[in-house]
Amino acid sequence: MDMARLNRLNISLEERMPAKQKPKKLVPNKLLRRFIESKPCVICKKDQRSGVMAAHHLKTRGAGGVDENNLIPLHWFGCHTYAHTKGVDSLSEELGVDLREYAIQLTKEFNSL
Length: 113
Description:
Radius of gyration: 19 Å
Shape: globular
Order of helices and strands: HHHEEHHH
Largest sheet: 2 strands, antiparallel
Mean pLDDT: 82
């Protein structure tokens, strides 16, 4: 909402959204993403040598997901689409791996470098 409209409504920006409640800007961590993309796909086990890898968000950025503790490596063609059709919980069950815990482990590994 622009300032002119706020003024017409006689509502200040501070009243509408106090500073402590402003949403955080999601800043991608490009180094973390590259690190995740260097790992083998959790589904097909292929790595960068066999195609494009993607750092897949378990909780989407649109839903408030951040990069830290939220990324898993997926082979871009096929596996990434498959993960979207299955969902996190179903895919975790199918693979026998807690994907959320795996994402946390990968972030810890990255942070220890």
